[in-house]
Fold this sequence. Notes:
Blueprint: H1 2-7, E1 11-15, H2 19-29, E2 34-38, H3 41-50, E3 54-59, H4 68-77, H5 81-84, E4 88-92, H6 97-105, E5 110-113, H7 118-148, E6 153-160, H8 163-170, H9 172-189, E7 195-200, E8 203-209, H10 213-228, E9 231-234, E10 237-240, E11 243-249, H11 258-274, E12 280-282, E13 285-286, H12 302-310, H13 315-319, H14 321-339, H15 345-361, E14 370-371, E15 375-378
Parallel strand pairs: 1-2, 1-3, 3-4, 4-5, 11-12
Antiparallel strand pairs: 6-8, 6-11, 7-8, 9-10, 9-15, 12-13, 14-15
Helix pairs in contact: 3-4, 8-9, 14-15
Amino acid sequence: xxxxxxxxxxxxxxxxxxxxxxxxxxxxxxxxxxxxxxxxxxxxxxxxxxxxxxxxxxxxxxxxxxxxxxxxxxxxxxxxxxxxxxxxxxxxxxxxxxxxxxxxxxxxxxxxxxxxxxxxxxxxxxxxxxxxxxxxxxxxxxxxxxxxxxxxxxxxxxxxxxxxxxxxxxxxxxxxxxxxxxxxxxxxxxxxxxxxxxxxxxxxxxxxxxxxxxxxxxxxxxxxxxxxxxxxxxxxxxxxxxxxxxxxxxxxxxxxxxxxxxxxxxxxxxxxxxxxxxxxxxxxxxxxxxxxxxxxxxxxxxxxxxxxxxxxxxxxxxxxxxxxxxxxxxxxxxxxxxxxxxxxxxxxxxxxxxxxxxxxxxxxxxxxxxxxxxxxxxx
Length: 379
């Protein structure tokens, strides 16, 4: 029975040359994770190559044969996608800033100290396991997604500006709070047919089928404005957060892979960050309110609406009826040209445009979060 339960749990690889440290970590997490342990970096590397079920790596720094830094370099340099994308949590006995910075530079996903409270340790590992699952699902579905939509897929990579500096200045817990706030905001704003992927701390991707760059640009500008309205206070400091968002689209090209789109969008985030951040960047440069389509918007899924109607559910399609009109307008224009049945296209178009305009000016209602007794989100 216990082996069946463990098989259903995410597998974590713990690498540390101290048997006591490994035993302590295992004791803290064994009810939530299936654990494999190794005593040095070289043995840990061999385990990664042979065991495809490992989802998260927890590694010490100072170890014989191969230390944590060397292991990180091998993982990030691996040609196996399942290995080079694994979340890696570096754990150390001392809070050494130089070690933390070196680990981040080599691609560590997170960094904590030995002796971290169990609740925080579990929260960190659970977040990394979820990241691994998201990436795996994204990897498995990316080609099918592009082919299913005949290349009509757009990608947004969303980065909290200067996230690492925010963590250094105010603490990692504040950075995590910012990350959770952005995650919650994204979940509330994207369509059901969109996919949100957690790429790293402070960084997300949104994959949108049946959406062009103008539509994504309009959404990105609204999202950026929503984040700008948030002010966080922490120990008398007022913290404002901004976003840099990179856009990429397959533009109807079915040979364009999702991996390539994510790379292009990430490159445009880097361009925007170099210019100072707080920007939306597409293939033609910076996107602003002046050069994005006035009524651009993400098209709703007609298939999803039809599925709901066939199952007898009318509530959600009714709420998005004008959006569906906007999406179906080109098809209805072709039907009218062919059959001349007198469809009220002008009136329908006016209603669809009105809805788009309303969405472009809708303000975002902020939530309130707390960190101890000194941190408050305000909008």
